[in-house]
Amino acid sequence: MCGIVGYVGWRGAQEVLVNGLRRLEYRGYDSAGVAVVDGKGGLEVHRAAGPLDNLVAVLPEDGAVGSVSGSSAALRATTGMGHTRWATHGPPTDRNAHPHRDATGKVAVVHNGIIENFAALRAELEAEGVELASDTDTEVAAHLVARAFSADPDGGLTAAVRATVARLEGAFTLVFTHADRPDEIVAARRSSPLVVGVGQGEMFVASDVAAFIDHTRDAVELGQDQVVTLTADGAVVTDFHGETARTRPFHVDWDIAAAEKGGHDFFMLKEIEEQPASLADTLRGHLVDGRVVLDEQRLSDQELRDIDKVFVVACGTAYHAGLLAKYAIEHWCRIPVEVEVASEFRYRDPVLDRSTLVVAISQSGETADTLEAVRHAREQKARVLAICNTNGAQIPRESDAVLYTHAGPEVGVAATKTFTAQVIACYLVGLALAQTFGTKYADEVAREYAELESSADAVARVLEAVVEPTRALARDLAPSKAVLFLGRHVGFPVALEGALKLKELAYMHAEGFAAGELKHGPIALIEQDLPVVVVMPSPKGRAILHQKLLSNIREIQARGARTIVVAEEGDETVRPFAEHLIEVPAVSTLLQPLVASIPLQVFAAEVARARGYDVDKPRNLAKSVTVE
Ligand code: F6R
Q1: Which of 317, 391, 601, 619 to mutate to test the pocket of ligand 1 (most atoms within 8 A of CB)?
Q2: Which among 405, 382, 304 has a CA at the least distance from the CA of 374?
Q3: What pLDDT is recorded for position 67?
Q4: Residues 74, 184: one domain?
Q5: Which ligand 1 atom is the nearest neighbour of the CA of 364?
Q6: 357 forms bridges with which residues in the sheet?
Q7: Does some domain include residue 532?
Q8: E strands along 207-295, which residues?
Q9: Are 542 and 587 contained in the same domain?
Q10: How far apart are CA 144 and CA 151, in angstroms?
Q11: Ligand 1: residue whose CA is nearest its atom 3
């Protein structure tokens, strides 16, 4: 939620910031703004409601790329910051767009998160006669910094920021500039992410390395409650009290090409096609000397052996991956697994202790609901294992063990390659636990691991075979009002995920059901020509389930539904009941969700495209949800 970028260096700041915001738009696209500062022109702010292009349209025009000449500060300045917003406090209008300024116009701030005590601070400022120019929680921070700076000009902007963050409650990552300090920017981090990019004579700060990957792959991760002062020559990091703080430098292991569309119309379509690689990359290197190893493990084998119950917590698509974790872990480890949406978990006081393992799944590693579930679990002494796609994000940092998915950056707001990578990572966790508990011998673990490795090829075959026919089907069904999705066993989470993708991208009413539940109510929804997508189990390993699902298809067909069936290649029994048959390769039961979800991802993207929607940026959504 909300993307932040800051720059100090020698390039034209405006251009660096706008390019950075383009890569951060996935974090929010309700409005955007930049503030630049230079020694002569002072502070200049430009903001616009709507997508980034609206901002670009109101920016002073630059003659040459990277030039630092021109009449306005915006064109000369080599220091500044930008913001792309996902609105929380106040509607997405020009006046609520960031950066916000103090009353003198000397301080500007951008913010990601929520300042929970903003109402009290606002009242305090208003009582002092300050007129607030926006409805946001953010603006108070600009006024407070301006006040602290005037009270202690010798302390500089950094001291003023420290004094201000000491008064704030909630989650806030803030970046400030001051017209009297044109050569520096100061940022503070609590909860929402912030990374520093280290260049040659230039420094960056951003919510995500994608914002500065064009310029440098050397980065420093900021910890909780840290303040960083950036000048062109470097960064000074302290804690909120001014003590030197420890940071973790890292090198970004992907390059600019990974953050580009690579010839596709949408990032999502590129990301769908990247799944064979992201599955292989996620598995790679995790079987060492016959043992499955995680990326980080701060738990002893004995602590893991003491686990007698597993909770999986996650949101949205990651929750669907978690549902699949249950099948694998219970099957391989014979211990009970409960899967719960993270936003519900801590509010119902779950029974947790040292022998409980909480597996938190999050692509971003910063989803507030999941993070709070992790914190609650740790307070209750449960062990936490994170599955995450973002190196060093808050959820893995606060966990006892971590397995990273190596899906690379996912820019499309709808999760695709990170979903399948999460599923495979869940299976790896299942194997790691099975070997620790002794419920699987080393040769069995190695066999299962090899089976998982075959998923990349199977998914590649699906992509080759189904993308084009699924596109045609999507165009045909795009005018439908609603679509239902049915599945059983591991096909049930696939049905839920197929429905979620269609809802969020095509704004269409879509529901996923366990097919056996149909007769307990949802069958009343079936009417003439309603498209129903059915995820069939294999007729071989799961013959009984297959039979039952065939009966379900007959029931809905008899009531006039249009049946779209995802079935194993060679499953002839289903052909007479499928108006559209989507054939996927025969794979083991646990891999079936991987091959079956690919056509549903393509379907949702193509229906959305046929309806004229922006596939990468569905309305009202943002990629990282850092508010509860
Ligand atoms: C749907 C989608 C969301 C996320 C959810 C959790 O396509 O992307 O449902 O899965 O917001 O996000 P992470 O995995 O970052 O915790």
Answers
A1: 317
A2: 382
A3: 42
A4: yes
A5: 15
A6: 310, 383
A7: yes
A8: 218-221, 226-231, 234-239, 248-251, 287-288, 291-292
A9: yes
A10: 11
A11: 316
Query: Where among 396, 426, 453 does a domain terminate?
Result: 453
Q: Could you tell me if the CB of 78 is within 6 A of ligand 1?
A: no
- Beta-bridge partners for 177: 108
What type of residue is 274? E
Q: Residue 189 and residue 498: Cα distance in Å, rounded? A: 36
Structure tokens at 256: 């600019």
Q: What's this model's pTM, rounded to 2 decimal places?
A: 0.82
Cα–Cα distances (Å) from 168 to 116, 121, 148, 230, in that order, read: 8, 9, 14, 22
Residue 405 and residue 282 in contact, taking contact as beta carbons nearer than 8 Å: yes
> ω before 99 within 30° of 0 (cis)?
yes
What is the residue-wise DSSP string for 274-324? THHHHHHHHHTT-EETTEE--SEE-S-HHHHHT--EEEEEE-HHHHHHHHH
Q: Which one of 2, 315, 333, 426 is the catalytic residue?
A: 2
pLDDT in the model for residue 255: 79
Inform me whether the pLDDT recorded for 580 exceeds 90. Answer: yes
Structural domain for 332, as ranges: 262-453
In a domain, 335, yes or no: yes
CATH code of residue 189 = 3.60.20.10
Instruction: State whether 363 and 248 are in the same domain.
Output: no
> Quick check: CB of 425 below 6 Å from ligand 1?
no
For residues 322-342, b (16+ Cβ closer than 10 Å) or e, as one string? bbbbbbbbeebbebebebbbb
Pairing relationship of beta strands 195-198 and 203-206 according to DSSP bridges? antiparallel
DSSP string, 288-301: ETTEE--SEE-S-H
Nearest atom of ligand 1 to the alpha carbon of 416: 7
Residue ending a domain, among 252, 287, 304, is: 252
Please give the distance, rounded to the nearest whole angstrom, from the Cα atom of residue 28 to the centre of ligand 1: 14
* Ligand 1 pocket residue status of 626, Cβ below 6 Å: no
91 and 211 in one domain?
A: yes
Decide if 503 is catalytic: no
User: What pairs with residue 568 in β-bridges?
Assistant: 584
Q: Which two tokens stand for residue 139?
A: 């603006």
- The question of whether 2 is a catalytic residue gets the answer yes
- Asked whether residue 393 is assigned to any structural domain, the reply reads yes
Q: What tens digit of pLDDT does each residue of 120-172 get?
A: 999 999 999 999 999 999 999 999 999 999 999 999 999 999 999 999 998 88
334/240 same-domain check = no
Q: Is the CB of 363 under 6 A from ligand 1?
A: yes
Same domain? For 35 and 87 the reply is: yes
Q: CA 584, CA 581: separation in Å to the nearest integer? A: 10
Residue 625 lies in a domain: no
Query: Tokens in use for 181?
Result: 């300090």
Distance of CA 447 from the midpoint of ligand 1 (Å): 31
Same domain, 397 and 499: no
Predicted confidence at residue 563, as pLDDT, reads: 97
Total domains in the fold of the chain: 3
Same domain, 468 and 447: no
pLDDT tens by residue, 472-486: 999 999 999 999 999
Domain CATH code at residue 572: 3.40.50.10490
Roughly what angle, to the nearest 10 degrees, separates helices 592-610 and 417-437?
A: 160
- Could you tell me if the CB of 342 is within 6 A of ligand 1? no
pLDDT tens figures, 424-466: 999 999 999 999 999 999 999 999 999 999 999 999 999 999 9
Nearest atom within ligand 1 for CA of residue 395: 16
Do the beta carbons of residue 14 and residue 77 sit within 8 Å?
Answer: yes
